[in-house]
Amino acid sequence: MKIEVDVGACEMHGDCVMEAPEVFDLQDDSDVVTVLNDTPPEELRAKVESAARMCPVSAILVKD
Ligand code: SF4
């Protein structure tokens, strides 16, 4: 699993952080979401896919 974020689309809504804090983070010194791990383990797939669905601007792409 590989995660890509369209940083141009991200509006820092933070839904992804609520869904998968192991993978996404919002940091004070950044205007876009921070991906802590862009190749997370399979056990986080459900959380990551939920984060992608929850993103209001569909900025998260999950590749197999
Ligand atoms: S939910 Fe989408 S818009 Fe919000 S911080 Fe995450 S990637 Fe960015």
Molecular structure report:
By secondary structure, the chain is an alpha+beta fold. It has a single domain, classed as Alpha-Beta Plaits (2-Layer Sandwich). The chain contains two helices and four strands; from the N terminus they run βαββαβ. It has helices spanning 15-19, 45-54, and strands spanning 2-5, 24-25, 34-35, 60-63. The strands form two sheets. The protein has a two-stranded antiparallel sheet. The protein has a two-stranded antiparallel sheet with strand order 2-3. Strand 2 (24-25) and strand 3 (34-35) form a beta hairpin. The termini are close together. Iron/sulfur cluster binds at residues 5, 10-16, 24, 33, 55, 57, 59-60.
Q: Strand content of the residues, in percent? A: 15-25%
- Counting structural domains, the number is 1
Query: What Rg, in angstroms, do the CA atoms define?
Result: 10 Å
CATH architecture: 2-Layer Sandwich
- The arrangement of helices and strands along the chain is EHEEHE
SS content category: alpha+beta
CATH class: Alpha Beta
Strand order of the largest sheet: 1-4
Q: Describe the global form.
A: globular
Q: Total number of β-strand segments?
A: 4
Report how far apart the termini are.
4 Å
Ligands, ions, cofactors: iron/sulfur cluster
> How is the biggest beta sheet arranged?
2 strands, antiparallel
Mean pLDDT: 96
Number of helices: 2
Could you please say which CATH topology applies here?
Answer: Alpha-Beta Plaits
| Helical content class | 10-25%
Unreliable stretches: none
List the helices and strands and how they pair.
Elements: E1 2-5, H1 15-19, E2 24-25, E3 34-35, H2 45-54, E4 60-63
Antiparallel strand pairs: 1-4, 2-3
